[in-house]
Amino acid sequence: MKPIYTLLLILCTYTLTRAQEKAAPDTINPATGNRELQLKLIKARKEKLFADSIGQSEATKLKPDSTLYNSYGDLLHDDPDYNKRQPLWKPTLQVLGVNALFMGYNRYIAKADYGYVDFDTWKTNLRSEPEWDIDDFRINFIGHPYQGTLYFNAARSQGYTYWQSLPFAVAGSLTWEYFGENTLPSYNDMIYTPLNGAALGEILYRVSSNILDDRTRGRERVMREVAAGLINPVRGLNRLLQGKTSQVTNKEVYEKDPMNVTLFAGVHRINRERNDVFGEGGNNAMLNIQLDYGDPFEAKKPFDLFRLRAEFSTGKADTVGGTINNLTGYGLLTGRNSKLGKMDVLAGAFQYYDYWDTRNFVLGSLGFGGGVFTRLPLSKEINLHTNAHLGLTPLAGNSNRSAPDSLGQRDYIYAHGVQGKIESTLSLGKHASLAFVYYHFWLKTFEGLDGHNSIGIVRPRVTVRLVKNLSLGYEYFGYTTDRHLRDFSDQYSMITDQKIFLQLYLENPQRRGRYN
């Protein structure tokens, strides 16, 4: 349930990020009077200086120092004077503390069998070869990545960069696997926990930075601190220990980029027959939350750009999938910007995270690959935005529901392979949009029922504006799986869903005219 809580907290606190004052290079002079009035004047100057005005050429547009600020007037890096890197022993001790808390909970509160560890179990684990475990799918592909975010943010929230924080996630996972449980260490956890934990951890760090504003006081400050602490609890603890929760600064001290939130709420039609395109079925309530962070055409370093989308569906319709239908996203690792005529281009390396729990299949995937983002203005109001990706999938968990499990305990296999993705949106100004999304995974089993799977996901969508930032939308979902198993007959199946929803688009004001 932690992903649900996190995303709802992001939604509830989004209005705080929209109200942030952009005071990047300016400071407040206590001798010149009212602090709040000075902040308003600073904001007005920033919006005028860094406005992305239509018709203003790149040659004449005023921009801040490109080594310190982006074109929105926000810091490109956390202020190193305020966010000093702490000694190595502090995040190390905190990683061990996270493990100690989990161990205490498992043994003394949950009283789980695997929580009873001693020197003998440690000795056994150290002398044994790791295995591919048989844990529940949700634990392995949602629970463990969240645990990895805690290790990662033990360092990230104490002045370490993304790449400097990654080893702490690795070390936390390794120590947990060998000393945290009495089961044998597992290969999948030692891979999935730190790598996807670092990705999700950086996302939580960036979101909490957008909420925090150390220039504020009073009720607003309390709300920001509480919200950021709930979204990123390790950072919240460290702010308390470092005295930052009450310290007031006279300038912005955190790296920030524009963040938009899109909400989809409506009816999820689930066709009863697996191979029906439009057939009889039941209806569920549906909620989608999508975060879009950063400007693709300014992004360069890890997670300057990311997208995270979560879909929830619940009701009486006949479905095998879980309440969390899917949790998917990507984040930039490194990139380079360029222009081809009128078209803006970002080419870079990305990390991908996919979690799907549907009637037809379950899929948890870690991926790395190359991607290209483009923005092509077709007229003053019409723009075509496209991003395409091709990557490797070093580790995935994929269901084998259509055939018996040779182990009799795990209903998914471990696999590796290739993935491709394309997302394209034609924005018709403020009036409507047409979108097409297609994902495909080619996976080869290396642990479990021998064979390979081909999974395709198509998701065309149309939205029509009703009023302001509220639109009416329709989305068609198609899932296909083509399984070829060595010891069983081939299986092909397709399921379809339809969704009618209201879409609420909460746009960061500083991002207007950018990538939507």
What does this structure look like?
By secondary structure, this protein is α+β, with helices and mostly antiparallel strands. It folds into 3 domains: 2-83 and 206-233, no CATH class; 95-204, no CATH class; 259-511, Porin, CATH 2.40.160. It contains 10 helices and 13 strands. It has helices spanning 2-12, 14-18, 35-50, 89-109, 119-127, 137-156, 162-179, 187-211, 218-231, 233-242, and strands at 259-271, 281-293, 306-315, 324-340, 343-357, 362-377, 382-399, 412-428, 432-447, 451-458, 461-467, 470-485, 491-506. Strands 1, 2, 3, 4, 5, 6, 7, 8, 9, 10, 11, 12 and 13 form a 13-stranded antiparallel sheet that branches. Strand 12 (470-485) and strand 13 form a beta hairpin. Residues 18-26, 45-62, 402-408 and 510-516 have low confidence and may be disordered.
User: What CATH architecture of the largest domain do you see?
Assistant: Beta Barrel
**End-to-end span in angstroms?**
29 Å
User: What is the CATH domain class of the largest domain?
Assistant: Mainly Beta
- Return Rg in Å: 24 Å
Uncertain residue segments:
18-26, 45-62, 402-408, 510-516
Biggest beta sheet summary: 13 strands, antiparallel
How many E-type strands? Answer: 13
Roughly what percent helix? Answer: 25-40%
> Which term fits the overall shape?
globular
Q: Quote the average pLDDT.
A: 84
Q: What's the order of the H and E elements?
A: HHHHHHHHHHEEEEEEEEEEEEE
Protein name: DUF3943 domain-containing protein
Organism: Pontibacter aydingkolensis
